[in-house]
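Inputs:
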Amino acid sequence: MVDLTRRDVAKLSLLGGAAVALPLERAIGGPATLANRIATSALPLPFTVPFAKPPAIWPVRSDATTDYYRVSMEPAMTEIIPGLQTMVWGYNGSVPGPTFRVLKGRQSVVRQVNNLPGRHPVLDYTPWTSVHLHGSASLPQYDGYASDICNPGQWKDYVYPNKQQARTLWYHDHGVHHTAQNVFMGLAGMYIMTDAVEQALPIPHGEYDVPLIVSDMMFNADGSLLFNLDEDSGFYGDVIAVNGRPWPLMKVQRRKYRFRILNASVSRSYRWSLSDGRPMTVIASDAGLMAAPRNVTSLRHAPAERYEVVIDFARYAPGTRITLRNSSPKNNVNFANVDKVMAFEVTGDPFDPANNTVPAVLEPYQPVMALTAADSMRTRQFVFRRDGGEWVINNRTWEDVVRSNFTLALATTNKNDVETWELRNPSGGWHHPIHVHLVDFKILSRNGRPAQPWEQGAKDVVFLGENETIRLLIKFDGGFGKYMMHCHNLVHEDHDMMGQFVVLDGANVADDPFSVPARNLPETPL
Amino acid sequence: MATTIPSVSSSGSIDEPLPGEGFVLAAAMGAAMAGVIHLVVVPGHWAVSAPMSAFFLGVGVAQLVLAAALGRGLPDAVLVGVISAHLAIMGLYVASRTVDLPFVPPHDAAHEMEHLPVPGAVGNGIPTYPGSRVEPVGVLDLLCLVAELVLVISVAALLPPRLRGIMTTVMACAAVLAVLWRVWVLS
Ligand SMILES: [Cu+2]
């Protein structure tokens, strides 16, 4: 004979209730990733943090032909949100990385030492790296081939020819499987190449030639970076940082400034405009100066694209504050202040009046821009699609390339051939910034219509919008061997929207991407 | 205040205390059902995690043995052991549905894709997001949980009053601690 007391029943109900309710509450409540997100009220007010340029890097030595640099990829604690410390991974501990300024014709050798920890503190992966100099026609073994990795405790010397026209390049991590996370941790920086043509122009130079590296970030309440990855679309942060500073305020003089805007965001695309609606002058794109400047009141900017924009502050009275705004292209995830980027406060300070113009002709001799559709020898199609949980190019992924022992190619062409590449995005639910390594290209058309005004220059990334078909004209004159092409929404790239193409050069054997593997520490003398 | 309250049973009327056989039957059925469910999920888990599969196999077999043994009458000490073991199993279940347990394999899209080894790599390089080791709640596992609740409640009912009071207090404390922990994690 047994009997349960009321008290027994109450106690047992407590057990039953908790056992059923806790799993259900978690299942309904969804991922707890955002639970610790910093409150918007704890973020700095826009335009209260002073603007700063990234630091510069200098060669450790130089000889007749080459400048040698040493970079350590390493963790650092930094104050991004005032009053809080954030653990980042930076080139030389700096986020963004230090800015290179190199002269066309002088080769660079950059030693990259992976001094990152053995495991990511939150995401628990081994942070191998592969450094890509984006915009450079580097040899395959120095191009940051995704599977040519450098583990923590290893190093590799990258050789950059610097033979192309002056341009704004950038270097960032390209390591297979976790490029998005490594770049979000801070592994990105600017690399500016100049040449005689660019230096001779009376456009803003020196202190008036300013990098703006824009990335969106997200933080936990304790200041640590918050990884909120939406496998479907990408990473979208609620803080807009320029050169690693949230919504900064820059004091400017009453003259022209040249801003080298790099969208280093993992996934977010932007549409820039000034708060007073007045025009900006686009003078250059990914692969350098355009033939002629273009005035625009707004311009769209996909991840990895670079636009050089001149803003003339002479038209404003001292004390005027102008903000750079972002009217977000569709299919981004938006938060309270992502419509703001940074502010300019015009001062009455005296300024250097030299190089304060934008001539009507900038760089008319960009070779790819001289090509016409009639020069094209063949047309290839590339369809960028989502296939289940994966992103694919012509139904292929990087995993397919790996499985083929790195022989599978989306295209095989010949050195100096000219081709039309037709890129198609059949979806209205997302866009893809498409990057082709090695080459500069000309945008022939966007859904049959001309490219946007700001795209009238040589490029290496193109915004492939929703339901768009874009035709590119490419001359494969930059080198030969295996090179990647991929979506530069780094979440798409990692999952697994990346492939390769092969450029043949007759009987010449190309260098293999794996021919200069990373070496174990200690380093040899540089 | 040992107030007797009416309980549902197949034989007893509303005024009579519940006969022990009803609880024995309920406990045996709970154990049998939980045991079967554990055995059913063994093959599906084999490829993902062999240790987890082996754990389910062990628990399933033990629960079926328990179901058979309950009818013969078990000493109180064994009944206490059965309750304790099932509190641990249910605790593990609740934990696996609410937090990242290090021994549970992550199951987000990145981990479920095929990834061939990277030449020269240390590890597989796949980021593991917080929450990706939290197992989703399914119909089968909820059923199993309910069966185990029936089992422990029925076994508790079979204990002599004093021991039963201690065990139900232990269970209630476990529940309160779990809820408090959850509230603390969320805050
Ligand atoms: Cu994409």
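The radius of gyration of chain B is 20 Å. Flag for discussion at group meeting.
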